[in-house]
Amino acid sequence: MLTEIRALVASIAPSDELEAAHRAECLDWLGRTDDVFRRVKPRTPSPHLVTYFLMRDAEDGSVLLVDHRKAGLWLPTGGHVEPGEHAAETVRREVIEELGVPAEPDPLPFFLTITPTVGPPADRHVDVSLWFLLAAT
């Protein structure tokens, strides 16, 4: 599975210098460890893989954001990649869990971020986030 995750990350065409730096950092991280899936909530290991998915309205381009209770921010929906799970499968699972509807993501992520989380200091960690698009119908 890590080979597939590396390929997903390598497939992302960075849109700016920051994303290019995040992509390079992520590929380096994936080359140094196989401990990339969250094992213990909320932060072990740090960093770990997550997905976000944007539900985009084809007509007006708006996207769905949700009130993330723990972060206290309006964010796209998403979730943690489970051990042995492909990131696109995480999206399929999480869209049902969070929105109650099945959806098929684009096969490749369009964006990558490496982000320190917010919240209580004991819970803070780093998320390596693969971002996918979903079409709203």
Main features:
137 residues; alpha+beta; 4-stranded mixed beta sheet; 3 helices; 6 strands; globular
Overview of this protein structure:
The chain has 137 residues and is α+β, with helices and mostly antiparallel strands. It has a single domain, classed as Alpha-Beta Complex (Nucleoside Triphosphate Pyrophosphohydrolase). Helices cover 28% and strands 27% of the residues. It has three helices and six strands; from the N terminus they run ααββββαββ. It has a four-stranded mixed beta sheet. Helix 1 packs antiparallel against helix 2. The longest helix is centred in the first third of the chain and has 16 residues.
SSE-based structural type: alpha+beta
Query: How would you spell out the order of helices and strands?
Result: HHEEEEHEE
Q: Sketch the major β-sheet.
A: 4 strands, mixed
Give the helix level as a range of percent: 25-40%
Global outline: globular
CATH level-1 class = Alpha Beta
Strand line-up in the sheet with most strands: 4-1-6-5
> Which runs of at least 5 residues are low in confidence (pLDDT < 50)?
none
Our count of helices gives: 3
Mean pLDDT across all residues, rounded? 92
What is the first-to-last residue Cα distance?
Answer: 31 Å
CATH-derived topology: Nucleoside Triphosphate Pyrophosphohydrolase
Query: What gyration radius follows from the Cα positions, in whole Å?
Result: 14 Å
By CATH, the architecture is named Alpha-Beta Complex
Which strand-content bin applies to the residues?
25-35%
Number of strands: 6
The CATH homologous superfamily is termed Nucleoside Triphosphate Pyrophosphohydrolase
Number of domains: 1
